[in-house]
Amino acid sequence: MQINCFQITGKPQIVPCEYGAAMEMYRLGESNVWIDINDASREELEQQLDALQVNGLLRSFCLDAGDHPGFYPLNPLALVVIPVQKTVQDTNSISYLSILLSSRFVITIRESSMARFRNNIAFTKSEEILPDGTPAGLIASLFLGLSLECLRKTSQLADLISGLENRLDKTPQSVKMEEISDRRTEVMVLESIVSGQLPILTIVTSSDKHLKILEKSKDYLQWAKANLQGAEKKLEWLEHRIELIRSALDMHAQETMNNRLGRLTILSMIFMPITFLAGIWGMNFQYIPLLSNNYGYLIAIAIMLIIAGSMYLFFKKKGWFD
């Protein structure tokens, strides 16, 4: 488990601080505080909730609602659980970010593999990233960052799907169904993340009970909402394109199979007269044409080759081998 603590100043700015100082500011309620808890086991999380004096129903939700996205407006705090992406190397997995918030502090509970937080937060740095010096500003900045991450991943998927379409046009045999399935899975995972974040963002934007949202923070939240709506529409379009690619690949596979069956049929037709002649000359009669001829064997072979060659040239001229 790792805990990062910050003081949210009025500049606006986030300033790293020690855990003990952050807990003191949290208890006194004199400053805006952000406590970031990551990779905590259930026992460790229980200990931290005890230290933060989080009890009752809210405590149960913090422990058990980690994978159930939603907005839980309890008193005196609110709990927000949103789906987020893991690292780029693990695109098919979803993590969940739990946020305890009030007008004076923010507590985030997460995994360290979340895409938005994949770089370690250094205590020796402070970044002016907030629209204003309130916890609502931090939440707005966080949602904006998550929405930009969704847009970035959506653009990456669009490039990958465009690459599949180009390969399907030029070299269809190089496109495998597994690739299409992988892209479809990534689109569906990202679509579930976007569709999980969007309604919660809408509720947070319209709720003033637990957060005092200033105008700049409202702008950030509106931009985040617009980003998620754009990503949602683009993901629907990408899902449609994947289905078109799958259909085109199925049609190409069916066409390839039909061509192979057509060639086999032509070969069967070419060898049919040869088989007929072989059957006649294989009969057990005493007198068969060319049977006693010294060149009968060569003549029979020549007749078969002429018939086969003539039929081949005929079908090739008609375009049956194209």
Provide a descriptive summary of the structure in words.
By secondary structure, the chain is of the alpha+beta class. Among the domains are: 1-123, Beta Polymerase, domain 2 (2-Layer Sandwich); 257-317, Methane Monooxygenase Hydroxylase, Chain G, domain 1. Helix content is 57%, strand content 14%. The chain contains seven helices and seven strands; from the N terminus they run E-E-H-E-H-H-E-E-E-E-H-H-H-H. The chain has a seven-stranded mixed sheet, sandwiched between helices. The longest helix is centred in the last third of the chain and has 67 residues, at 215-281. The protein is rod-shaped, with a radius of gyration of 35 Å. It starts with a strand and ends in a 5-residue tail after the last helix.
Strand-pairing-aware structural class: alpha+beta
Task: Output the helix-strand order.
Answer: EEHEHHEEEEHHHH
The portion of residues assigned to helices is 55-70%
Shape assignment: rod-shaped
β-strand percent reads: 5-15%
- The number of helical segments is 7
What CATH architecture label of the domain at 1-123 applies? 2-Layer Sandwich
Classified in CATH, the superfamily of the domain at 1-123 is CorA soluble domain-like
Write down how many β-strands occur, each being a DSSP E stretch of 2 or more residues: 7
CATH topology of the domain at 1-123: Beta Polymerase, domain 2
Q: What number is the mean pLDDT?
A: 82
Which regions are unreliable across 5 or more consecutive residues at pLDDT < 50? Answer: 118-126
Largest sheet: 7 strands, mixed
CATH class of the domain at 1-123: Alpha Beta
* Widest sheet, order of strands: 2-1-3-7-6-5-4
Radius of gyration: 35 Å
How far apart the termini lie comes to 66 Å
